[in-house]
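<derive_structure_tokens>
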Amino acid sequence: MLHLLKARQAEYSLALFNKALIAIFHPYNYPKMKFILSLIFVCSFYLLKAQSEKAQLESLLFNLPDVQFKLHSKPEDKHLKYLLTIKQPLDHLHPEKGSFYQSAVLTHKGFARPTVMETEGYEGRLDGNEIEAMLDANNINIEHRFFGTSKPDSLQWDYLTFEQVTADLHRINQLFRTIYKSKWVSTGISRGGTLSIYYKSLYPDDVDLTVPYVAPLTTALEDKRIYHFLDTMGSPECRQKLFNVQRFLLEHEAEAVAKLRWYAKGKGITYENYNSLEEAFEYWVLEYPFSFWQMTSMTCDAIPTNKSVDDYLEHMINIRYIPLLADKYIKRWAANGYTARTQMGFYGYDLARYRKYLRHIKGENPTAAFVPKDIPLKAFDSSFTKQVSNWLDEKGNDLLYIYGSRDTWSACRVMVSNKVNSKSFLLPGADHFEARVKNMPASMKAEFAIEVKKRLGMDADLDALK
């Protein structure tokens, strides 16, 4: 009985299939038939092409020395994405001294497409960038040496120099040039943008164009251009309001710190890198004007004036800087503090207005580059950044700098020499996060696209940024 039932089901299914075939191939349905067959052919063609390209790319990646890869994209994703692990020497001049594994992310658009090197100043990211989008380019996002997972088993700080960091980038460039033979561009944001400038200066032939975003070029441990910016940014009334918040909180330090202690406990953060929570609090207050202009688009009307400790603290916390002073973040970004204190330079706090209100910060103007106490520091040496600055003035061609006029770091922006063809784009009123091509005024955006085409011979699709 069961066999009979299965046989009848099979006969019924076959009859339905035959009926469908007759319907499709009936003379009256020739146009539909042609459309369906064409659609099947086109889909099959692109599927086979995609599978062929994937196989070709993976074969090429497999043959790259010291490169491991893992497919990260899903079948439904538009582009192939791979997580890369690249073996790098600790010392590029002496490979025998050991190695570490550097993380990167490859997004593949096509072998004939241009390629963007996205130089991170911190950990790597999976997201794309504006240059990649505008050029429909391949993208290699490269995590910075000694950040994230790109660390040796034992952190040997003598090997954290920008000569070594840029040599990492050069090696990656040379490896992947065997796969991607079209134009090459480097780009980065903030500290990653500064790294793209360093990289261009030491290996000018690696890329055809460099686009650094909001990238300061400091040449001193206490870059005093920051002080001038903070003393002139906004109206005198606005600057006074900022100072009033600082003064009030310092005058009510005991009450404010008592509240901050509970806040820190609730967030699970500690401040043991300082001599006391009170000292950390004073650094936080000193940082306030820098972060107000850099990290927010707040207007001066948003600054509280009611002399309430709670309201002032809430306002400061909304700027979101206090957690960045905590131990876990100082440890997480130790490489940033280390390079700032030894080679890159940074900014400090001018204590002239604050000395009589400070109880726990003593001595001369302190640096804002915090480093875990257990890391040995060399004396600061400005020779590298001065060498870069001189090169930019004399030979720094094919860089398109992007800055925001409100961003505190724009005080240390590169001033383009008339000896080179590079350009700088200063977005009016933009902070550190708003200074992007998509936010440029229309005329500036058009000029930027023209400059890109001059250097690459291809159009920048500005509509891709919408």
